[in-house]
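Below is a typical protein record.
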Amino acid sequence: MNTTDPVEFLDDTVRIRSHESTEEMRDYLLENVSGTREHPSGCVVAEKGEGDETVVLNSHMDTVAPHIAYGRDGDVVRGRGSCDAKGPLSAMVSAYERFDAVDARTVRLVVSPDEETLSRGLHDYLNAEGGGFDFAVVGEPTSLDVCTAAKGRFEATVELHGESAHAAGDGGTNAVSCAAEAVGRLESIEPSYDELLGGSRLTVTRIEGGETPNRVPENATLRIDRRPVPPETAEGFVSLVEESLDGIDCGYDVRLADRPTPFLEAFRTDEGNGHVRRFRSAVEEAVGGTCVRPFGAATEASYLARHAPVVVFGPGGIQEGDGTPIAHSEREYVGVEEVRGAAEALTRFLNNE
């Protein structure tokens, strides 16, 4: 196939099921994108150029469930992954293949296998290879806006320990009552604010407790979703929760959800950075305009931002202007001209056009 044509690549890859296994997507990349190899981390990688400046193009090959079959409606491609993130990936592959300023810079294409779950691939790749790059572009659906920041995502569990007793008596310490009080305390935590990202957000997403209807419940559990802004860390979030629960009638334990990779922390890249300004100019020249804004979800850009300035960019959107979901929804789609525009912008940036 012609990998310089992003729409042909998109048509092919949206047909590939990648919600349960990325094996077929991996094989497609290895067979069709020049110079690709499978890294021990599971990422598919390629490198081109000999310049001192190194730019990383990163997107992901996995999608969420369920699979939604490919469809074409004029200039719109529909199906699972069309915008998240095979549209952005198609643009990046096209730009990588068209990159010819090999003396000016080195370009690395790094395609993650599990961005939608635990991000083991990119985490292990960066651990093995280190930083060693000057700028990164992460391919996600931004409606062709240049996104220089994003909130992170932490997840924690609060276990509350009371004292069981018969419900007919006066004894015991009700862990479910403690959980109700804990929810109020957690929801009253003052948000942290970032000039660009706005306020942090904390949401109690699940409550579990009690065993039988005639006993005072001894245990209850809360699940918490946290969307932090810089400079909050996962450990700082745990401390914040513990402080808010101080003095509650029950004993409690706060712990981060188990995962083999670090949580995605918030990141923010300086809009005045030279790479960012040059990238924005390339996008404006290619598509006639863009804006700089935060991205609306946590991404693997968090890992890359620990090493170098990073932006998030790509065709398609997470949602419509009225909030109707696009990505991860049954109606997922991307516009063909947006995909072509993203590919042109990336190519202009890489080739100094």
